[in-house]
Amino acid sequence: MKVLVTGGAGFIGSHLVDRLMKLGYEVRVLDDLSAGTLDNIRHWLWHERFEFMEGDMRNREIVEKAVKDIEVVFHLAANPEVRIGSQSPELLYETNVLITYNLLEAVRKSGVKYLVFTSSSTVYGDADLIPTPEEYAPLEPISVYGGAKLAAEALISGYAHTFDFRALIFRLANIIGERSNHGVIYDFINKLRRNPGELEILGDGTQRKSYLHVSDTVEGILHIFEYFRKGNRAVDFYNLGNDDWITVKEIAEIVSEEMGLKPAFRFTGGVDGGRGWKGDVKFMRLSIEKAKKTGWKPKLNSYEAVRRTVRELLSSL
Ligand SMILES: O=c1ccn([C@@H]2O[C@H](COP(=O)(O)OP(=O)(O)O[C@H]3O[C@H](CO)[C@H](O)[C@H](O)[C@H]3O)[C@@H](O)[C@H]2O)c(=O)[nH]1
């Protein structure tokens, strides 16, 4: 079976590629190398079952070429940054919504049977029900990023019901681990390397979220995909996260401890009641009961995933 992984040179994508290759699939990766790097997939480049296509999914022709002869598409290509600043709304729209539309147009004209999409917990916005289940409503994202993910989900659902393919949508908590090159742990390590005496923490440090290690994430995606294939739903949604959660201040403590440092913490105070930035969801923990009913469960809790990630990132420096 031939599968396409968009964003397969990226953080989560490359770990998914590792697993798919080990399972014996024929794997094609489409990546523009904007956030991902060839280093993440270098070990597969000359493998006979592996094919790399460098290309920007805003270009329809490239996407059409990429889905040729493909049975399953894992759509992970995305701009992962929630923080507006370096990312303009237009860029977020193009790299999350437009590329998904281009993919769907290519998929409906091809023989693709399954589309697996990595959406995000940010579609729930400031949910007043925690842990938040998949059926939580109304979905009211508070960031442009979350809005773009929700728009992509909606397009996928509409296309899958209209055209002849099935779609599986994952709403991911904060995914961390080796090869991640953005996010709170990565930022803290870099800030401490620049200044071991003081650590700037965005917001008030009480932001509390659920973190899932990338190894548990990839296992969840593939396990639930097999479960979904045996069923008959055209579209289904699964949260992937952890049963526990951890504050940004606790993450700062673990990073400092693992680096053997005792920095002074300087909180910026943040915006809108201690958020790191406008649109930062302050409290996020997803209900993972639906995923667990399929037989999957995380091996590492949020604290263990954070500690493991710090060690992995430090050893790769
Ligand atoms: O230098 C920093 C960086 C982050 N934070 C804080 O740490 C928390 C986590 O921030 P990250 O940047 O690690 O992650 P986000 O919650 O913004 O987003 C991540 O998780 C989301 C899903 O939950 C998305 O899918 C997204 O792509 C992914 O990056 C935030 O509350 C933020 O305010 C800091 O205090 N200092």
TrEMBL record:
<protein>
    <submittedName>
        <fullName>UDP-glucose 4-epimerase</fullName>
    </submittedName>
</protein>
<dbReference type="Pfam" id="PF01370">
    <property type="entry name" value="Epimerase"/>
</dbReference>
<dbReference type="InterPro" id="IPR001509">
    <property type="entry name" value="Epimerase_deHydtase"/>
</dbReference>
<feature type="domain" description="NAD-dependent epimerase/dehydratase">
    <location>
        <begin position="3"/>
        <end position="233"/>
    </location>
</feature>
<dbReference type="InterPro" id="IPR036291">
    <property type="entry name" value="NAD(P)-bd_dom_sf"/>
</dbReference>
<comment type="similarity">
    <text>Belongs to the NAD(P)-dependent epimerase/dehydratase family.</text>
</comment>
